[in-house]
Amino acid sequence: xxxxxxITPTLPDAVCxxxxxxxxxxxxxxxxxxxxxxxxxxVGDVTLHVRETxxxxxxxxxxxxxxxxxxxxxxxxxxxxxxxxxxxxxRGLAVDLPGFGRSDPPPADDYSLGAHADAVxxxxxxxxxxxxxxxxxxxGAVALLVAARRPELVTTLTLVxxxxxxxxxxPTRLGDPRVALAFLLPAVGGGRRAELAAEDARVRLxxxxxxxxxxxxxxxxxxxxxxxxxxxxxxxLPWSAAALQGSFTGLVGTWLVPGRRSLxxxxxxxxxxxxxxxxxxxxxxxxxRAARTAAALPAGRLLRLPGVGHVAQMERPALVSRAxxxxxxxxxxxxxxxxxxxxxxxxxxxxxxxxxxAPSW
Length: 361
What we know:
By secondary structure, the chain is of the alpha/beta class. The protein has a single domain (about 1-165, about 200-355), classed as 3-Layer(aba) Sandwich (Rossmann fold). The chain contains 13 helices and ten strands. The protein has helices spanning about 80-85, 115-125, 140-150, 175-185, 190-195, 200-210, 220-235, 240-255, 265-270, 290-295, 310-315, 315-335, 350-355; strands at about 1-5, 20, 40-45, 45-55, 65-70, 90-95, 130-135, 155-160, 275-280, 300-305. The strands form two sheets. Strands 3-4-6-5-7-8-9-10 form an eight-stranded mixed sheet, with helices on both faces. α10 links the parallel β9 (about 275-280) and β10 (about 300-305). α1 (about 80-85) packs across α12 (about 315-335), α2 (about 115-125) crosses α3 (about 140-150) and α4 (about 175-185) packs across α5 (about 190-195). The longest helix has 17 residues, at about 315-335.
């Protein structure tokens, strides 16, 4: 069942919010939700680690498989809560991109956006069915490439604060001047990278949360400890720094590409019904990119969330679950309507965005 959360019924079509599934359809989300088990999957010449969330044997509505692609410096565990929220309807597969999480590094250390997309495409092709594809940040840009290149593999697309071109000269977006020097100036930032690598994993995690969350204080101690354990594990991997630097450089390189090869042109080639979710307090990729992103997608609609940062799927997992299921239902029914332009948050959005469970990292 779809529920329209618009408070004012006389709003014109261009400002109607996206359809939301009923809250009763959201699966149980823990505090924290334990990380889902994973397995290693050979995809061409790279081995990926994939975490699986079982779906229902008899879903109440349209089901299928949802595949998640994480952002820069993240991992499959970034989708733990959203996968739980969708588990009443959809089986979840969260991929660790090459060099991240527990996936092996790619051959020849190729961390370009195209190489990441190739890895995800290879994984999807092996599933034997089209999927609902969801990506955040860097993973959103990867998912965009995948959906444009192989539309037959993607039933619906959800982009959470996708890393669309944003060249604002603001080093504070990286949360620490040392991080800006280490990654924006790789040729001279070796000392800073070594200094950051020597930091305690919990210190680095706190800094990352301050950057990604609108309110990092909402993360429980238990959820933080769970995330810190994974961060400490990652710190032991010899390729972790190269994966982060290489993926960052590869992403920014795509922002400089003009014309038909740009991410904006790529978005225009995506045919799948697409939900764009953006936090109003995103410090990494400005919400000012949200309207253009949704408008660039032929079947794109935009959901802007007040009081939310860069990782809406972690900050508001129940609400994002409802939006994804609403997309699935509307796409199945053929009723997904293109909004066409952004008008900001709809009346009552602050109430809805705040009325959800505390997230886990």
